[in-house]
Design goal:
It is globular and about 35 Å long. It is α+β, with helices and mostly antiparallel strands. The protein has 2 helices and 6 strands. β4 and β5 form a beta hairpin. This is LY6/PLAUR domain containing 1.
Amino acid sequence: QCYQCEMTDDCAAPEFIVNCTVNVQDMCQKEVLVNDDGILYRKSCASSSACLISSSGYQQFCTGKLHSVCISCCSTPLCNGPRQKRRPLPSSGAAPTGLPLLMLVLLLLDSILC
């Protein structure tokens, strides 16, 4: 199972869960595109060969800047959903506010690719 959608929200609701074709679509794929209108997420089932070729082919375009394209592949159920947020350390203060949009996009892309 993978999430399947194409939208500006990092879709993770149950209605976006699909069953992948057995023995053909053995990975989940997640694309994050930065365009003039903001961030677009594309998620789907994929074959391992197609996904790995796409992700490596677009690696040079994964910059976090305008027109950036980042493609990632994973092989566990629903792994192309949003990344789980880490718990803050008990001693940490309030989260910083007012970060520039570019910094937030870079952090998002970094968390997707790591």
